[in-house]
Amino acid sequence: MEKILVLGGARSGKSALAERWVTELPDAGPVTYVATAGDRPGDDEWAERVRRHRARRPASWRTLEETDVAAVLRTAEGTLVVDCLSLWLTAVLDGTGAWEDAGALVRVDAAVDELIDAWRSSRARIVAVSNEVGSGIVPATPSGRLFRDLLGTVNQRVAADAHRVVLCVAGRALELPAATPIPPASTSADLMPPSAAESSSVTLRCSTTLGRASRHAPSQTMEGHPGVPAPVDAEAERAARERVDGLAKPVGSLGRLEEIGVWLAARQGSPVLRPPARVGVTVIAGDHGIAELTSAYPAAVTPAMVRTVAAGKAAINALASEHGAFVRVRDLGVDADLGDVAPEVTEHKVSRGTGRIDVEDALPREQVRAAIAAGRTLAGDLSADLLIVGDLGIGNTTIAAALIGSITGIDAEKATGRGTGIDDATLHRKTEIVARAIERARPVRDEPEDLLARIGGADLAAMAGFLAGAAERGVPVLLDGVVVTAAALVAEAITPGSSTWWLAGHRSVEPAHDAALDHLGLEPIVDLRMRLGEGTGALAALPVLRSAVAICSRMAALADLDLG
Ligand SMILES: Cc1cc2ncn([C@H]3O[C@H](COP(=O)(O)O)[C@@H](O)[C@H]3O)c2cc1C
Ligand SMILES: O=C(O)c1cccnc1
């Protein structure tokens, strides 16, 4: 059920807001108010505060004075207001003696882990209130500093698993955006947009106070089974459809947004949608033997663009920083030495370029296998709850056309496009090369590894492994353009049924794209006449996906309209 975190300073209006929300809920069911304040014998002012709070609440609410919040969350049904996590933390510090004894911090850690676990798994709808205490100057006392740091971390961890987080200031609520440009402690620094780089050391330091400040999406903690896509939650899908149909609008009037919302609910495993909190873009680069014959640009652009993505200055970086996604780039098969960019950029490199696919194999089968495995690893080593993979490599639209032609059966004339913008003579040559590649691949068109060895490349193989790996782990993917969708066709052959975890982000100008999408039964979300790759078309669709989540999670029910 829905989890909401309300943050704010003292007297910001946070408790009143939480209570008002719950009072106004049409389907709150039985409401339990969990007061974590505890007694303060002999403190009359405190007793008066508690009395005032109580008087404000509806008489039908049950009040539970309880500091073991985790136990309450585990067994609760209906709706809970937990007020507040800061007093709960105070009680934990009191109970463990951790104010003075640093050795007792492990027990605080354990209590926080337990709370987070209960928050995540609780069947109740929960509105939790907590203090935002980090804005002032550094407290003068060690206990003040300890409390401030611990509470900041608790708030981060609770927020990471909340459907909504709001910040109250002066009695007004500010809805906090879902995506936070802060990488989890476990991932490498190359996921940061440049603007976040300065604050990263602070972030990582804070997040280790309690071991882990952010969680992996549940599906990410599962290894996944090679060759088998994770199941989707049909019951969540049915319940989400029913919920969406019952919102304050004519049935079906929000069109594709409704479909996307229901699709995502089935993959998140809950009819109550959560906006994607961490969107990870992995750009996979490689060179191709045919490039000089079929592209408008020289192959030297590939390594140059890898550097540009790593520097945060490519189109994909611009879109990602605008829409709260992280970008990393990996060289799987660039025909240049990129070891100096950053060690992780070449961590999975398997080749330098490929053979000319019209006359020879692209690469040996062992390299294909290694690249597929690398792709699977890359899909699993991010704590992202929405994945995007992008392509980078001069000549790669030729490879895409050949793969799409081989798998879907469309001929080279239909499959071949102008890529980066080639002239008629180059288009003619490219079409012949694609036709010869399709011919060479005919005997192995149903064998993904052999097909990639003949007419693919390390980058395409890694993208295919990535897309299969995401489906095996149960992480939704937004597909990009023609190159990524060519890899998706291969991934569907590696792990049949993978496409159930993918949404087509956009429709590329490249002619083979439509055939590939049709083959997969996918309908693109946007058509902006884009033809770049890098993952840009997928990111162009991300705001639409967020819109779908917004309508599905924030609207009133039709049944609650006051028709006089
Ligand atoms: C500066 C530049 C940046 C790019 N970013 C992606 N691509 C895209 O265009 C290339 C594929 O088109 P073709 O098959 O015609 O070579 C790939 O690098 C692809 O990622 C780029 C291309 C260029 C020139
Ligand atoms: O659709 C794509 O992915 C694409 C199109 C042209 C050039 N590079 C990529």
From TrEMBL:
<comment type="function">
    <text>Catalyzes the synthesis of alpha-ribazole-5'-phosphate from nicotinate mononucleotide (NAMN) and 5,6-dimethylbenzimidazole (DMB).</text>
</comment>
<dbReference type="Pfam" id="PF02283">
    <property type="entry name" value="CobU"/>
</dbReference>
<protein>
    <recommendedName>
        <fullName>Nicotinate-nucleotide--dimethylbenzimidazole phosphoribosyltransferase</fullName>
        <ecNumber>2.4.2.21</ecNumber>
    </recommendedName>
</protein>
<dbReference type="InterPro" id="IPR017846">
    <property type="entry name" value="Nict_dMeBzImd_PRibTrfase_bact"/>
</dbReference>
<dbReference type="Pfam" id="PF02277">
    <property type="entry name" value="DBI_PRT"/>
</dbReference>
<dbReference type="InterPro" id="IPR003203">
    <property type="entry name" value="CobU/CobP"/>
</dbReference>
<dbReference type="InterPro" id="IPR003200">
    <property type="entry name" value="Nict_dMeBzImd_PRibTrfase"/>
</dbReference>
<keyword id="KW-0328">Glycosyltransferase</keyword>
<comment type="similarity">
    <text>Belongs to the CobT family.</text>
</comment>
<comment type="pathway">
    <text>Nucleoside biosynthesis; alpha-ribazole biosynthesis; alpha-ribazole from 5,6-dimethylbenzimidazole: step 1/2.</text>
</comment>
<keyword id="KW-0169">Cobalamin biosynthesis</keyword>
<feature type="active site" description="Proton acceptor">
    <location>
        <position position="534"/>
    </location>
</feature>
<feature type="compositionally biased region" description="Polar residues">
    <location>
        <begin position="197"/>
        <end position="222"/>
    </location>
</feature>
<dbReference type="GO" id="GO:0000166">
    <property type="term" value="F:nucleotide binding"/>
</dbReference>
<dbReference type="InterPro" id="IPR023195">
    <property type="entry name" value="Nict_dMeBzImd_PRibTrfase_N"/>
</dbReference>
<dbReference type="GO" id="GO:0009236">
    <property type="term" value="P:cobalamin biosynthetic process"/>
</dbReference>
<dbReference type="GO" id="GO:0043752">
    <property type="term" value="F:adenosylcobinamide kinase activity"/>
</dbReference>
<feature type="region of interest" description="Disordered">
    <location>
        <begin position="185"/>
        <end position="231"/>
    </location>
</feature>
<dbReference type="InterPro" id="IPR036087">
    <property type="entry name" value="Nict_dMeBzImd_PRibTrfase_sf"/>
</dbReference>
<dbReference type="GO" id="GO:0008939">
    <property type="term" value="F:nicotinate-nucleotide-dimethylbenzimidazole phosphoribosyltransferase activity"/>
</dbReference>
<dbReference type="InterPro" id="IPR027417">
    <property type="entry name" value="P-loop_NTPase"/>
</dbReference>
<keyword id="KW-0808">Transferase</keyword>
